[in-house]
Amino acid sequence: MNTIIDIEARGTAHCETTALGVLLRHEGLDLSEPMLFGLGSGLSFIYWDSRNLDFPFLGGRVKPFVLTSNLATRLGLELQVRETSSPRRAWDHVAAALDAGRPVGLQLDSHHLEYFGSRAHFGGHVVAMYGYDDHDAHLVDTAQQGGAVTTSLTSLARARAERGPMTARHRSFTLAVPENAPSPRSQLVPAITACADAFLDPPIANLGHRGVAKAAKLLPTWLQRTDDPRQDLSRAALLMEKAGTGGALFRNLYRDFLAECAQLIDSEHLRTGHRLYAEAATGWTEVAELVAKAGESGDAACLVRAGAVLTELARVERDAMRALSRLGGEAPR
């Protein structure tokens, strides 16, 4: 059996928006990666540390698949999600959609994908599948991972069956765009204000601007948390800047989303938010560089400096989100 769907693979940065772009372009809806990320209210922040973690984790976006759910709700998309504990039924779900000419999104553990650059486990990875033959699956991943790639059906089955943090039960999904779907432009303000409100009023201190402030206090202690600073701090810096975030812990993507919005909406609040997120993006890249330098040198002063930058970033992002939250009450111009 050989099924290949004609799709367009673009050089994109983040896994979930990469997959969403493939599925939606096939349906005739072509949006930039920053627009997909922003309309899905994807920006967030979490500082996470617990007894079962070897080292603290900094995250810059909402949980896996929340972005997809947000986007589908916002744009009135027909989102069909399949989950099962049965590997056979899981394959049947995917094959049926592909054989019907529709690409499929998959959430899986990237550790098992043969083309993937990192062997670390990550159960929240998302790819678009556009074909298969007797031996291989044909996928679209981020530009960093090769764009249009292949992996064996055996490795794909292992990736989908993995269990652990952030994994799903063989999750697959398809998207359709109904004729009466609202225009993306009409949903910009609701998407921005929803993201801002969540960031400004997090339920716990590890999230949103409060989480950034907490990270600012704790990051200077990171050398005390590791026996291998070269490995652990270098990995933390890599996750901020390179690992599918689009740079600056997703702040580059959100900055570019706000820039697109500013071309469509005449708003001083929006321009303020964009200016401040441009500043925040630069700051997050500096933090990643300082953490990497601390890992290489063992110099705690680098982490003290990174903590000071984070203190300022907590203020910058809070002020940006306060400005953006006011979009909903602004008179049209």
Overview of the structural elements:
The chain is of the alpha+beta class and 333 residues long. It has two domains: 3-30 and 78-176, Cathepsin B, Chain A, CATH 3.90.70; 184-329, Four Helix Bundle (Hemerythrin (Met), subunit A) (Up-down Bundle). 47% of the residues lie in helices and 14% in strands. It is built from eleven helices and nine strands. The protein has helices spanning 15-26, 33-39, 66-75, 87-99, 153-161, 188-200, 208-218, 229-241, 251-262, 268-297, 300-325; strands at residues 3-4, 43-48, 57-61, 78-82, 104-108, 125-132, 136-140, 148-152, 172-176. The strands form two sheets. Strands 1, 4, 5, 6, 7, 8 and 9 form a seven-stranded antiparallel beta sheet that branches. A hairpin with an 8-residue loop joins strand 2 (43-48) and strand 3. The chain is globular. The protein starts with a strand and ends in an 8-residue tail after the last helix. The model has no long low-confidence stretch (mean pLDDT 95).
